[in-house]
Design goal:
With 828 residues, the chain is mainly alpha-helical. Among the domains are: 336 residues, no CATH class; 222 residues, Methane Monooxygenase Hydroxylase, Chain G, domain 1. The chain is 75% helix and 0% strand. It has a two-stranded parallel ribbon. Helix 1 crosses helix 14 and helix 21 packs antiparallel against helix 26. The longest helix has 70 residues.
């Protein structure tokens, strides 16, 4: 009962929410909850046997040969349910599974029964001077060969027995060493369990306290409701409002550009009209003077007549080409545009921008009361969580657990000296068994040493030396002790073999491959009324699917104990962290947010009327084709610079004199006219061209453009006045989802932390591993199995050693009689 209570209380420490909360997508800004405080566990539930591990593997291989069958789950289940033997064939299956152990044990028992009996008969036989008891040795030609073979075989058998003794001694000493060092491992497990108990409440407090991170982020967004919600509303409305205002502002700029263009047209036309009149007069004057020069008598000379005629014929080209005097004026349009510009349309549009950009401030002012209610709800959530947490009897439960743990530790510490004392007795007993074999080996080795060193091949059997005779006596002493000790040794081997081998095959191997847990998880096995025994102990509900294998595997992976044991079936503290009831209050508060944006005026009626006046200013009535026709013409019919250059070239063809000089003077005069009058006129024409083309582009469908701008502004204003509520509701919903998303993040983080970090149950798996895998299997079973393996092998090789020792002793001992051959007989 105490164990069950301890387990239940341990499980309680890791309990948390059980329902899966929906994940908000797309997620809001990720919150940083930090890392759950956790200390590192010290216990490493893994045993490395070292060099003796090679012997353990050899023993495991031998046991596989003896028992290669798979783990008998069905037989174990029937045995646990006390149904073994109810079904026909159960005993046959058990015998089939244990046949290797049965045959081996039978051979051992046969050894135990027959060897003392054979020893007794052998002793009686020798007393009757039979079985080698007669102190007489017949001479044989191959005597030396036989003696060497018997000595070699005995030496090899003794070596094999020595290896077995060393294996048994190593296993015996290994077990003692591990028992002595087990105290440190046990203390490490208790230390980890204390850490487990002490850290769990701190971890739970950390999870609860991290609600403040969620609350602070939500309060931050609430305090910045203008930049957050107001900006979102502004961005959604701005998709229509800003293009409309931008179009109106662009139109205001077009009005200013139109005025500048009209002014440029008016000035340029006036400049061109005056300039072309003055240019026409100057060109006429130049033609007159050229004509007078060409009428000079020098042009009648044969060498100049042709050139003068060519120049005379080209004088008609010295005339203006473009006529700007007939172009219509734009003074009326300019006057109307000046009237339009008396109202600063750009300023009116900027007021619309400013009013729209005040949306966040309007949101702040109109949500101040509701936000205070939401903040109160958030504060109440934190207070309720703290109150609920304090109401849980976690500290009392942990204190009780700590008391049980401390008592268990004290109990173990008190019994450790007793365990070490009994282990010393065990070690001493096993050492005595090894010493029995060592004693036999000593006699064999001394017999071999004395017999080999003291043997004189020239001595007859009756005259052998004392050392050789002593060697033979040692060998017979070894034989005698072999008969005395071998059956005792074999009894120990059989008992430890059957026990240790079955522990390895029925406990250690199934534990390693988890077949043992599958047996324990068999429905109605440990309790005929409970389907799942572990669930019945913890939850008093055996129908919950909770298995030993799953719990052990999860704890092995250091998962949280809440996840490992499905504690949602026992402790439902969803009220602590399932904040849906609170988020509903927050959602209702946020949904009640009402924002009125009717005060925002994008463009008043004066601005709209100003746009209409601009569209009716008459710039679309300007005769742009007339302007463009004259603009596309050149100022003069001929390029004056080309004409002057040509005139100067022809003058060079005339004879040197006054005519040549006069013509070159006229050429320079024409160049001066081009630079002083034609070039400025061309610049004025370029300005006029740009202005006319700008006015043409602006006037193209001007009325339609203005109406479109006004329609866009009206649509945006209508959206703000009539449909903004839908946008506000939509953005308020997104804003609410963002706030609630913080709580969903907190819930998901808590769930993940509880699953993987809080009350990580690695110490529980370590305790099981320490008790079964390390203590029972690695320390005890492997050492015991290696001990009987070495001891049994040595005992088996005592039989050939006895035979070879008896045979060999005949060649070392001093005989009472020997075969004697007379010389006459030999000669015959």
């Amino acid at each position: 009962m105490a164990v069950e209570l301890c387990l239940l209380l341990l499980l309680f420490c890791g309990s948390t929410i059980s329902e899966v909360q929906p994940i908000y997508k797309p997620p809001p800004g990720t919150l940083d909850f930090g890392f759950v405080p956790a200390k590192t566990y010290d216990t490493g539930a893994y045993h490395e046997p070292g060099a003796i591990g090679i012997l353990f593997k050899i023993v495991h291989a031998f046991l596989y040969l003896v028992q290669p069958n798979t783990f008998p789950q069905d037989l174990i289940r029937k045995l646990a349910q006390q149904q073994f033997g109810n079904t026909q064939g159960d005993y046959q299956k058990a015998i089939y599974y244990e046949i290797g152990f049965i045959v081996s044990a039978a051979l051992g028992l046969l050894f135990i029964l027959l060897l003392p009996l054979v020893g007794l008969c052998f002793c009686m036989c020798r007393c009757c001077d039979n079985c080698g008891g007669e102190m007489h040795q017949r001479q044989k030609k191959n005597a030396d060969c036989q003696r060497s073979c018997f000595a070699t075989f005995l030496f090899v058998a003794s070596l094999i027995i020595s290896v077995g003794v060393l294996c048994a001694y190593a296993a015996n000493q290994h077990l003692t060493n591990q028992v002595r060092g087990a105290k440190k491992l046990v203390n490490s497990n208790f230390k980890d369990l204390k850490i487990f108990l002490n850290d769990t409440p701190a971890q739970i407090d950390y999870l609860v306290n991290q609600y403040n991170t969620t609350k602070d982020k939500a309060l931050s967004d609430l305090n910045n409701v203008g930049p957050v919600l107001g900006t979102r509303v502004q961005e959604q409305l701005g998709k229509e409002v800003r293009p409309a205002l931008d179009a109106a502002l662009t139109m205001a700029g077009a009005i200013r550009e139109t005025k500048e263009a009209l002014e440029n047209v008016s000035v340029s036309v006036e400049v061109l009209q005056e300039g072309t009149e003055r240019l026409h007069a100057n060109l006429t004057d130049v033609k007159m003077h050229l004509s007078n020069t060409l009428n000079d008598s020098a042009c009648n000379a044969a060498q100049a007549a042709s050139t003068c005629n060519i120049i005379r014929n080209s004088l008609a080209q010295l005339n203006i080409n473009a006529n700007f005097s007939g172009l219509p004026g734009v003074s009326l349009q300019l006057a109307r545009i000046n009237d339009v510009l008396k109202i600063d349309l750009s300023s009116l549009v900027q007021k619309g921008y400013a009013a729209f950009n005040d949306t966040p401030d309007l949101v702040v002012n109109q949500t101040r009361n509701i936000l205070s209610d939401i903040k109160s709800v958030l504060e109440s959530i934190g207070s309720n969580i703290t109150t609920f947490t304090r109401a849980l009897p976690v500290q009392k439960i942990l204190a009780d657990l700590m008391v049980h743990l401390t008592q268990s530790e004290a109990y173990v510490q008190d019994y450790f000296p007793l365990v070490e004392q009994y282990d010393f007795y065990r070690w001493l007993g096993c050492l005595i068994l090894c010493c029995m074999l060592v004693l036999i080996l000593v006699f064999y080795y001394l017999g071999l040493l004395c017999g080999t060193c003291g043997y004189d091949k020239h001595a007859s059997p009756t005259t052998r030396g004392c050392i050789s005779n002593t060697g033979g006596n040692f060998l017979m002493a070894g034989v005698g002790f072999s008969f005395l000790f071998s059956w005792v040794l074999m009894i120990v081997v059989v008992l430890t073999f059957v026990t240790g081998g079955n522990v390895e095959k029925l406990v250690c191997e199934p534990f390693e491959d988890k077949n043992l847990f599958k047996v324990l998880d068999t429905p109605y096995l440990l309790n005929k009324h409970w389907k799942n025994y572990l669930a019945g102990i913890i939850f008093k509900n055996p129908n919950v699917n909770l298995t030993f294998e799953k719990v052990y595997s999860d704890c092995k992976e250091n998962k949280g104990i809440y996840t490992s044991l499905h504690l949602e079936h026992l402790f439902n503290i969803n009220e602590l962290l399932n904040i849906s009831m609170y988020t509903e209050d927050v959602a209702l508060k946020i949904e009640h947010i009402q924002i009125n944006l009717s005060k925002i005026i994008l463009l008043d009626e004066i601005g709209k009327e100003n746009l209409l006046n601009f569209s009716s200013s008459g710039i679309d009535g300007i005769d742009f084709s007339a302007y463009l026709t004259e603009i596309n013409k050149s100022v003069t019919k001929v390029d004056l610079l080309s004409f002057a250059n040509d005139l100067e070239a022809r003058a060079d063809q005339l004879p040197k004199g006054a005519l040549e000089n006069a013509l070159k003077g006229h050429a320079n005069n024409i160049r001066m006219i081009h630079n002083q009058q034609v070039v400025p006129l061309e610049q004025a024409m370029s300005t006029l061209n740009q202005s006319i083309r700008l006015l043409k582009r602006t006037s193209s469908e001007l009325m339609v453009k203005v109406k479109n701008v006004i329609s866009a502004v009206n649509a945006a204003q209508d959206l703000i006045n009539n449909n903004a509520s839908q946008v506000i509701v939509q953005e308020t919903k997104k804003y609410m989802d963002t706030i609630i998303g913080y709580f969903e993040q907190y819930t998901e983080w808590v769930k993940e932390s509880i699953s993987m970090e809080v009350a990580a149950c690695k110490p529980i798996a370590n305790v099981i591993d320490t008790a079964v895998d390390i203590f029972l299997c690695s320390y005890i079973a492997d050492s015991v199995n290696t001990f009987w393996f070495g001891l049994g092998g040595s005992s088996m090789f005592l039989i050939p050693a006895i035979i070879f020792a008896v045979k060999l002793s005949k060649y070392y001992r001093r005989m009472d009689t020997e075969d004697v051959y007379d010389d006459s007989v030999e000669q015959w």
